[in-house]
């Protein structure tokens, strides 16, 4: 009996996902960078700047959600570089001559990036606990944290797939990820937004990273969430859908070139 396109999408996607996973462990530099940079940022802010920043709670408890988002964003940005490398390096053309769906290339990068982010985020949590992080989240709160982080990672993964498909060189792909990686620094990740100049506070309060961080902070340490949870789902649910559609459209266009 002839297999359906869905069957081949799943099996071929798993094949390319295995390829991405092997790259993570055979070339661990990207994983180490995805862990090392956020850990360095967290330790620096907690031990150097933490004593001077008043947040109403222990600074380590305040800063951990922002560090986790920074970690996940950096890990996802590596996908754009990998996708561009595959496109300009000839892998895409090679897949055309093999019994694999070329679209499985995107699925493999998204899956591999997600697993890399899960590993890096877990390490960040463990390091945070070692330096004094004290979450008081219950079981449902932890489920909410996992769900929101998964939504955030998948939405960024597909966004960076789209960027990787557009760019013509690894260098430009790397540069194109910078605006998204910079957003956590202009949010409530490291300092309360009310301490910022009025014009900057307006941007910080109304960009997608702030409601995400405030929701994670509320779930982890019990600060008010208000409507930030719904805003987070709206922002990153929309980003996931739009990025997925755009990635598919760009990929189809590249197939015809």
TrEMBL record:
Q: Where does this one sit in the cell? A: Cell membrane; Membrane
UniProt keyword annotations, A-Z: Cell membrane, Membrane, Transmembrane, Transmembrane helix, Transport
Principal cellular location given in the protein's record = membrane
Q: List the InterPro entries hit by this protein, alphabetically.
A: ABC2_TM, ABC2_TM_bact-type, ABC_2_transport, Nod_factor_ABC_transporter
| Family, similarity comment | Belongs to the ABC-2 integral membrane protein family.
Checking PANTHER family in the record gives: NODULATION PROTEIN J
User: What is the recorded name of this protein?
Assistant: Transport permease protein
List the source organism. Cytobacillus eiseniae
């Amino acid at each position: 009996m002839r297999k359906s396109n869905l069957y081949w999408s799943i099996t071929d996607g798993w094949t390319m996902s295995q390829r991405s996973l092997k790259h993570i462990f055979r070339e661990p530099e990207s994983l180490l960078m995805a862990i090392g940079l956020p850990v360095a940022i967290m330790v620096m802010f907690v031990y150097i700047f933490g004593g001077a920043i008043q947040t109403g709670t222990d600074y380590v408890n305040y800063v951990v959600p922002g560090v986790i988002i920074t970690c996940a964003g950096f890990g996802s940005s590596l996908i754009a570089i990998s996708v561009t490398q595959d496109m300009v390096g000839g892998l895409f053309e090679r897949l055309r001559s093999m019994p694999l769906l070329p679209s499985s290339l995107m699925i493999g990068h998204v899956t591999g990036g997600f697993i890399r982010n899960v590993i890096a985020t877990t390490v960040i949590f463990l390091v945070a606990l070692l330096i004094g992080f004290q979450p008081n989240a219950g079981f449902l709160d932890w489920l909410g944290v996992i769900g929101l982080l998964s939504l955030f990672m998948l939405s960024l993964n597909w966004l960076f797939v789209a960027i990787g498909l557009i760019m013509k060189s690894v260098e430009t792909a790397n540069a194109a990820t910078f605006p998204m990686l910079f957003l956590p620094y202009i949010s409530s990740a490291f300092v309360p937004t009310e301490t910022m100049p009025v014009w900057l506070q307006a941007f910080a309060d109304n960009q997608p990273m702030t409601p995400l961080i405030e929701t994670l902070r509320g779930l982890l340490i019990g600060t008010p969430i208000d409507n930030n949870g719904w805003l987070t789902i709206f922002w990153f649910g929309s980003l996931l859908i739009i990025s997925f559609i755009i990635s598919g459209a760009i990929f189809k266009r590249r197939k015809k070139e």
